[in-house]
Amino acid sequence: MKVLNPPGWPRPKGYSNGIVAKGRQIFVAGQIGWDETETIVSDDFADQFEQVLKNTLSVLAEADAGPEHVVRMTGYITDRQAYLEAGPKLGAIWKKLMGKNYPVMAFVIVAGLIEERAQIEIETTAVVGE
User: Fold this and answer.
1) Which residues contact 51 (CB under 8 A, 6 or more apart)?
2) Could you give the C-alpha distances from 67 to 42, 57, 111, in angstroms and in order?
3) Which percentage of the chain shows pLDDT scores above 90?
4) What is the dihedral of CA 121, 46, 35, 98, to 10 degrees?
5) 29, 60, 66, 93: which has the fewest C-beta neighbours closer than 10 Å?
6) Nearest Cα residue to 50 out of 60, 63, 40
7) Which pLDDT score is estimated for 13?
8) Is the pLDDT confidence value at 130 over 90?
9) pTM exceeds cut of 0.90
10) Parallel, antiparallel, or unpaired for β 120-129 and 23-32?
11) pLDDT tens across 64-110, in order?
């Protein structure tokens, strides 16, 4: 996997502008902040974010992949302000679970998610090198 950053562009913080990767692709469906019993773990944004990452990593583990293989994440959030206020907590959670891997990312604000209490949903693509 190689991170792409055009000459003269500032280095992004918390994500990558682009990634090129070759290997076995893994696609993870949108994960929300519920546990294995489909119970939302908390109404706190950061708690839901942490559970989303744990769920994502659990699915990746089924394919013998980990956080270092994640190349793309698309997140859907229902509350921009909650996301911004949770920023420092989100950074700490990211480092704890994902390490220093910063994939290509986009977050979109949406009116709502299928599960009423869900505040965030993230779908992920990973590539395990050949």
Assistant:
1) 32, 33, 34, 35, 41, 42
2) 23, 7, 29
3) 95
4) 80
5) 29
6) 40
7) 86
8) no
9) yes
10) antiparallel
11) 999 999 999 999 999 999 999 999 999 999 999 999 999 999 999 99
CA–CA distance, 107 with 76 (Å, rounded to integer) = 6
- Which of 121, 109, 7, 16 has the alpha carbon at shortest distance from 70? 16
Q: Which of 66, 54, 68, 57 is nearest to 100 (CA)?
A: 68
Q: Within 13 A of 71's CA, how many CA atoms are on the CB side?
A: 19
Are the CB atoms for 24 and 127 separated by under 8 Å?
Answer: yes
Q: Residue 104 has which token pair? A: 């290509």
Cα of first residue to Cα of last residue in the chain, in angstroms, is 11
